Amino acid sequence: MKFEKVENTMFSKQHSDDVFEFVEYGEMDENSKVQLFFVRNAKLAFSDLTESEVEEVIMPYYSSLEQLKSIHGEDYKEAVLKCYFGGLSSNSAVQYVGNKRIQIVNAILNINAETCLQVLKAMGLTIDVLDIETASIPEQDYVA
After folding, report:
1. At what angle do helices 65-72 and 51-58 cross, to 10 degrees?
2. What is the residue extent of each domain of the chain?
3. pTM of whole model > 0.85?
4. How many CA atoms within 13 Å lie on the side-chain side of 105?
5. Which of 24, 53, 104, 116 counts the most CB atoms within 10 A of its CB?
6. Are 26 and 137 in contact (CB under 8 A)?
7. Extended strands (E) in 19-135
8. Lowest-confidence pick of 33-42, 60-69, 126-135
9. What is the C-alpha to C-alpha distance for residues 11 and 106, in angstroms, rounded to an integer?
10. Strand runs (DSSP E) across 15-144, as ranges?
11. What is the pLDDT of residues 92-107, one digit of tens each?
12. What gap in Å lies between CA 20 and CA 43, rounded to an integer?
């Protein structure tokens, strides 16, 4: 399976019916005089989320899971996990809680554009140009 573009700077790849991998890149600080980038990724399983977690992560974008399903159809699991990935911090500590897999968010921060492209290509993305107009990263993820 190949990575598919799901937003300007976010890609996903389906590993199974339940598991998706997401990759996102963007500018660290668009106001900086030096242009530095981040790349982050995580492999997430829909079955790891409880019903209340699903409702919580989709609420900023959808009124209910039923609305999300009516819009995305069979791709609803990917849509839920995309919302979940978007809310994860690159600084998240990761562990197993009981039998539940809490997935690692890998992040490479403060890299130049050339290195960013190299990292993305090494991860399996087919990309030649960075589209950074809409990229952003939460403030808590900035590294000094």
Report:
1. 70
2. 4-141
3. no
4. 17
5. 24
6. yes
7. 19-27, 37-45, 96-97, 100-101, 106-111
8. 126-135
9. 15
10. 19-27, 37-45, 96-97, 100-101, 106-111
11. 544 444 555 556 678 8
12. 6
